[in-house]
Amino acid sequence: MRDVGGEGVQQGLLKLLEGTVVSVPERNERRGSKAEQIQIDTTNILFIASGAFTGLDKVISRRKTKKNVGFGAKAARQTDESSDSFSVSDPFHLLHLQSEEGCQAEMAEKDSLLQEVESEDLIEFGLIPEFVGRFPVVVSLSSLDEDTLVTILTEPANALIPQFQNLFAMDKVELQFTEEALREIARRGLEKQTGARGLRSILEKLLLGPMFDVPGSDITAVHVDGDVVRGDKQSHYVYSSQAVDTQQIEDENIETQGNRSVNVSAL
Hints:
Helix 2 (56-64) packs across helix 5 and helix 8 packs across helix 10. Helices cover 58% and strands 9% of the residues. The chain is built from 14 helices and 5 strands. The protein has helices at 7-18, 56-64, 71-89, 91-98, 100-114, 119-125, 129-133, 146-154, 160-169, 179-192, 199-206, 208-213, 226-230, 240-266; strands spanning 21-25, 37-41, 174-177, 219-224, 236-239. By secondary structure, the protein is mainly alpha-helical. The strands form 2 sheets. Strands 3-4-5 form a 3-stranded mixed β-sheet.
């Protein structure tokens, strides 16, 4: 039978946490191949487990807002029904939840709930008590905000923006993003609640047209601003003829300024 609940996997990991000798293949080969095995003792290994734990905040919220049994139960149920009907029937409330402020408020509420996580919440989430007991320290991480997503887009060694710039550079085309465009991309990632992994799909959809238009053309640069990300206009292309005209204009301006300086010095 399949281990649908994951308890068998947790039991296997529990042996590693408690300390045992496991056989690990020396090379990453196919399962069942006769590769050399290395014996590793996990007794003195520090294990750090992490995960998304989607829905854990709802478990914590249910624990903190338990219904009273008795006279207060009916009043609590009526309060919940009234709040639910408000959230469904009021279109302005739904519009607020879908806005940027609503997303930020939702993330802040989720972060505050995850900071109060306890062992009983993890057990109710689906982890076995023996497994939870082996991790005495539980720490929650804050959600990614707009500034962090912009940093992820630009600063890491394998960031997405340099990847696409290198891709366009293969056709000798310069890809430029304004600061407003980067922040608008980050806002779209926050609205979709896909995190940093969803930024690539946003960029792929945004640059789909330019990636088809650039090869075999005389385009030398592609400029993307906030309006392009919002869909108000198409990406701005700079062609080789425009680049030559611009350079000629700059040269003429420099020559004109030089002639003026000569005339002033002669006077």
